[in-house]
Amino acid sequence: MKNSEIAKLRLHNQGLSQKIFKDPVDAVTQLGAVQAQDYAGAKWALGQRLADCSDAAIENAFNKGKLLRTHILRPTWHFVTPADIHWMLLISAPRVHTANASYYRKAGLDAATFKRTNATIMKALRGGNQLTRTEIASVLEKAGIPTGGEFRLIYIMMYAELDGVICSGARRGKQFTYALLEERVPQVKVWAREEALAELMKRYFTTHGPATLQDFIWWSGLTMADAKNGMDMVKSEFISEDINGQTLWFREPKSTPAGKLLTAHLLPNYDEYFIGFKDRSAIGEVIKKANLAKDDSMLIANLILLNGQVIGGWRRALKKETVILELKPINKPTKNEKEAIEHEAEKFGDFLGVSSTIAW
Questions:
Q1: Each residue of 117-152: pLDDT tens digit?
Q2: How far apart are CA 251 and CA 237, in angstroms?
Q3: Spatial distance between the Cα atoms of 234 and 201, rounded to a whole number of angstroms
Q4: Is the pTM here over 0.85, yes or no?
Q5: pLDDT value at position 300?
Q6: Strands 355-359 and 322-329
Q7: Rounded to a whole number, what is the distance in angstroms from the first to the last CA of the chain?
Q8: Of 256, 262, 272, which Cα lies nearest the Cα of 204?
Q9: Which of 6, 160, 169, 233 could in theory staple to 165 by disulfide, Cβ–Cβ 3.0 to 4.6 A?
């Protein structure tokens, strides 16, 4: 299997070359979790995988609690669905706590302190209250719990998320709020850890494959022992292929991936097509040939794709009634390639509900 074939399958399985997801909730459900460190970018990550979906529609789904944004899998924010949050916390929270342990100590946070912070936050949010981080900090301070110092409040809040105490509430203007998880998402079913592990493996390799166990470990934050155990449970549902000493796992697509049509995409930073893999060599042939410096800021953030290959970077600047997109391809695109990229730029403007201005 060539890199171009790997890219083609990944584009299809992630709903980028063909719209295989029905709505934002379906997209997040099938992808498992979608990194949402950049909230605006994460909304576009969903929007470009859906037909006729707007930024406002995804914002509405988030505010209604149909999508949640919390710390899960690796220690960063992800979109996850209410139906999945409890079992995903079961499988990933202990690993994130382990990864955060040294930071907890540096912030002066121990088990006794976390017991107090969780109880204080629960009391403040009970009854459907939704508070901003600043408001919760004020509550903690009044309870005699200091929140100053580098990262202390961040880890107090993250711990409460990982312990299943809090999750995202509706936005208040542009501010994020927190709600009690038990009130926003009552737990209907209690999962066994092995069951949760098998489900996570299925979600990842169905939508991210072809991928390796190392890719899964990077994405999930779990151990190699977990990855091997999980694959043993689900491998009968997947195809494997050995390439350059690595075993790639993937599922046969239900529909045929697009043929030789030219496809272009403007990926937001942290898009699952890029961030969901430890080894990104299959989509980086153009970058490798160009021998670019590693600190090229346009390639660290938003990425331009052509037929699944990273061929440049882009920036956005949102004005009142327009979005300005600065496009920086590594090599000069052909006329057809330029038109395909500009079409995607126009779709981004449509998604935001504004006109788009393109600057090459």
A1: 999 999 999 999 999 999 999 999 999 999 998 899
A2: 7
A3: 7
A4: yes
A5: 59
A6: parallel
A7: 34
A8: 272
A9: 160
